[in-house]
Design brief:
253 residues, alpha/beta, Arc Repressor Mutant, subunit A, Rossmann fold, 2 domains, 6-stranded parallel sheet, two-stranded antiparallel sheet, globular, transcription regulation, DNA binding, repressor
Length: 253
């Protein structure tokens, strides 16, 4: 379905539809947003493309091309308004609407995810926790109480959930995915290495920590020379660690 372009921010040109932005650019926009968040906390008002690119671990030409998908940004010779650029990226990523997240599987990983405070700062609100283990159902985790997974479908409607996270044992992951689909969720993040079957209209992302560590192991074995620590890029009077991945993908904290 073709929608209307997102409204402009502070009089700037409308943001193109997110489906027109390449997936690789979307991933980098999330990185730029994280760096801009750090700059906002430090009181930075203006950042140059070179400084933002270096802190994000990309070339300045690639950064400018990525940001061109959002419409005109910045002033030549001056730089980017940090607050305005942050708002435009949030709008492009759909974060300005906010997302309500339900998590199924409250084991060690699930509890760690439920307790992570960074979600709220990035537009995600954890609204429901679910499990099938009688020892966990009814237990408090942070501000939430674990509910039985049998309540999941009804609860998703009540909570107006938009994203479902699966952190269950592998053998239960497909059943949970089916429940989330029946509940009407169109976005699912799974921490199970099992390949899950979902309809085409559902966006599924899978995080396999073992695979990420295997990639790290391969790269470590290949690189016999010592690897220097990540360079620090100075922005104003503060140093921001470079987030450039070495030899592949990383899962940023």
């Amino acid at each position: 379905m073709v929608g209307s372009p997102a409204p402009s921010v502070a009089g700037a040109a409308p943001i193109p539809e997110s489906r027109d932005i390449p997936q690789a650019t979307v991933t980098r926009l999330a990185t730029y947003l994280r760096v801009l968040g750090v700059l906002t906390e430090r009181g930075t008002i203006i950042v140059s493309s070179e400084e933002l690119a270096a802190a994000s671990g990309v070339g300045s030409a690639k950064l400018r091309k990525d940001l061109s998908f959002l419409g005109p940004n910045g002033v030549r010779g001056v730089g980017y308004d940090v607050t305005r650029l942050r708002a435009r990226i949030e709008r492009a990523l759909g974060l300005d609407r906010g997302h309500k997240v339900v998590l199924v599987g409250v084991g060690n990983l699930g509890q760690a995810l439920a307790g992570y405070g960074g979600f709220g700062r990035r537009g995600f609100s954890m609204v429901g926790l679910f499990d099938s283990d009688p020892a966990r159902v009814g237990a408090p985790v942070g501000d939430l109480t674990v509910r039985h997974v049998d309540e999941l479908e009804q609860a998703c409607a009540e909570l107006e959930a938009t994203i479902g996270v699966i952190s269950t044992p592998d053998e239960a992951a497909q059943e949970v995915a089916d429940r989330l689909v029946r509940a009407g969720l169109r976005c699912i993040l799974s921490f199970s290495p099992t390949s899950l079957d979902v309809p085409d209209h559902v966006e599924m992302r899978r995080v396999d920590l073992a695979v990420e560590m295997q990639v790290l192991s391969f790269n470590s074995a290949r690189n016999t020379e010592s690897v220097p620590t990540a360079p620090r890029v100075r922005i104003g009077h503060s140093a921001v660690p470079s987030t450039a991945p070495r030899n592949g993908s990383v899962i940023a904290p």
